[in-house]
Structures are given as structure tokens and as C-alpha cells.
Amino acid sequence: MISFSSMPELLTISDVSRRSGVASSALRFYEQRGLICAERAGSGHRRYPRTVLRRIAFIVFAQRIGLTLDEIGAELAKLPADRAPTRRDWSRLSSTWASRIDQRIAELERLKAGLTECIGCGCLSLERCQLANPADRAAGLGSGPRYWVADRPSG
Amino acid sequence: MISFSSMPELLTISDVSRRSGVASSALRFYEQRGLICAERAGSGHRRYPRTVLRRIAFIVFAQRIGLTLDEIGAELAKLPADRAPTRRDWSRLSSTWASRIDQRIAELERLKAGLTECIGCGCLSLERCQLANPADRAAGLGSGPRYWVADRPSG
DNA sequence: GTAGAAGCTCAATTGAGCTTGAAGTCAACC
DNA sequence: GGTTGACTTCAAGCTCAATTGAGCTTCTAC
Predict the structure, then answer these.
(1) Residues B109-130: pLDDT tens digits?
(2) By CB count within 10 A, which of B5, B11, B71, B126 is most buried?
């Protein structure tokens, strides 16, 4: 890898850490998990292209939304391997999340309603209450944290 | 233990588990953590008053909102110890959550906006982007990684 | 009166998502 | 040429929220 004189193409791990707000240890961990990758300097030190920052941003976003690292990895795997991802590539990925966010928001709205209506009124027996009923919570839900259970048809 | 003919006052752990959708092991765990408690039959088996179901419902709700068990314990500790909690008691507790839910919803809305605006447009450098900046992430709301970068003492 | 389901305790394990520590390499500065 | 500091790997440790297993007791149905 030859870097062009005009711009510093490659970043060190601490550069990336500083710019992303993600600890170096976490960056190594993400690399180990296959979420990001790095070239190496002759010394063995990691050298990151600037594009990694967007990838990391994506990871941070996705985590806040509630995806696990495995899920995030699966999303990232959809990006083209042969070329730098474009805006379109990124927005194609993230478009699937909008509905997920909406579902989570809807759940929070239901919970909020439940706080006043359900816990307050005493109907909260959990075997009846739609807001947190076992059918919703039971299904270990192959992927995704439990918090993400959206409304499924309850039995 | 004599149970009155008209209604079964006390529930076994599997009754409670079935009615709440919470595993027996979790119920024992909650007891160990001081979130719920049980009387004991002569045999040593747990016997729960029906009111425990509402307490468990509260725990489940609170978890879905994003509180830790410690936080939930702190909330539950505010309930009167000398008498069965009333609707008012419960709704007083849960009223503080509404704003928490609103905050989380607001964050999700921002994230959703960021998906199209920010990841799409390429401004997402994380050191600048409002949507996922350290200050936001430090809030530590709900689920997700515990160590928010901006939060760490090491800087 | 006995099989087997359900309960008990206590300790260990799980899994996600990291951090921390030990031991070593490498380049730069004085 | 010695020290500092950023980097490396690998292993161990940590939190949270449970689950799992061992080893034993008790309850329920036939």
C-alpha cells in the first residue's frame, strides 16, 4: 500500500478510536468478530482506510437500535465486497431498520399506555394482558435481544 | 398449610411461572435479588400470594422499558411495606417511567432520521454527528453495551 | 407404597460485549 | 543507548440476567 501525498489515507487504531469514540479494544474486538478489518503496516500495526469510520458509525447506530453484533455482521455482509459502499448501499441496508425502529417505538407506546391503564387498573395479570403477555415474550426469538419482541399474534 | 376452600390463596412456583411466563429459575433468581419474596410451606416449598403476579408484571414491564434489576429493585422498594400496594401506589411508581420512555422514543426517532439523512449522506463521522454522539450515547438508556465511550473514566 | 414430577440449595456456566493485564515489538526522541 | 509510548497478541476478567446441573427432598397419582 502506497499512500498518496495529498491526504493521509490510512489511520492508526488510536486515530480511529478518537474519531469514532469507540475504544481501541472494542475495535480489535470488532475485527475479531469480522465486523471491520484493517490492513497492516510493516510493523504489524493496524492501518485503517477512512471508510472504516462509516462502517463503525453504522455499527454504533445499529447497536443503539438494538441489533446484536451478529445481526450487524449479517447486515454488513450484504455490502459489496468488491468496491467501496456507496450512499445507496448504506441506505439500502438501513432502510430495513426503519420498520424495526417503528416496531420498537410502537412497543414503547404500548408499554407507556400500559403503565397508566394496565398497572394502574389492576388488570395486569400477565396471563391476560396484551401488553406483556407470555406469548409475546416466550418465543426465544431465534435472533435478537428479547427487548425486541414485536407484536406477534398471541395464542 | 390449610387452604380455604373458596379460593387458592397461595400459588406454587410453577403456578406463578405459568401465569407470569417467567421461568421458575428466574423467579428464584428474583427472590435472591430481593425483587420478590415468598412464604414457605412446611416442606420448604415456596408459596406465593397472588399479589406477587402484579409485582412480577411490574418487573417484566420495567425490564422491557430498559431498567436494570437493580433499578427495578429500587423502584419496588418505594412501595409500602406494611400493606398491599394499591393502584395508586403502582401508578405513582410507573409515572416516573413515562418520561424515560419518551426519551427513548425520541432517541429512536433521531436514529431513524439519521438512517436516511446521516448514514445516507456520508456526514457520519461520529465525531460530529449529533445523532450518535458521545453525549447522547452516554445516557445509558436501556439495553445495549454498558460502557459508553464518553462515560468511561479513562476518557 | 411407589414412580415420577416438582421443589429445594448451592455452585458453576452461559453469552453478549466488551476491558484489562501480561509480555513482547517497534519507532522516535533525547 | 535508553526510555517512552503506541502498538501487538493472547488470555483472563467483568457485568447482567439468568440457566443449568448435582444431589437431595417432597408432593401427587396410581
Answers:
(1) 887 777 766 665 555 544 445 5
(2) B126
Of B50, B41, B47, the C-alpha closest to B19 is: B50
C-alpha cell at B131: 445523532
Contact of B104 with chain A, judged by CB distance below 8 Å, is answered with yes
A103 interfaces chain B, CB cutoff of 8 Å: no
Å between CA of A55 and C1' of D8: 23
Per the structure block, which three cell numbers stand in for B5? Answer: 376452600
Tell me which residues have their CB below 7 A from strand D.
Answer: A 12-15, 24, 28, 38, 44-46; B 23, 25-26, 28-30, 41-45, 63, 68-70, 146
pLDDT range class, residue B25, cuts 50, 70, 90? very high
Q: Is B130 on the interface with A (CB under 8 A)?
A: no
Mean pLDDT across chain B: 74
pLDDT in the model for residue A89: 86
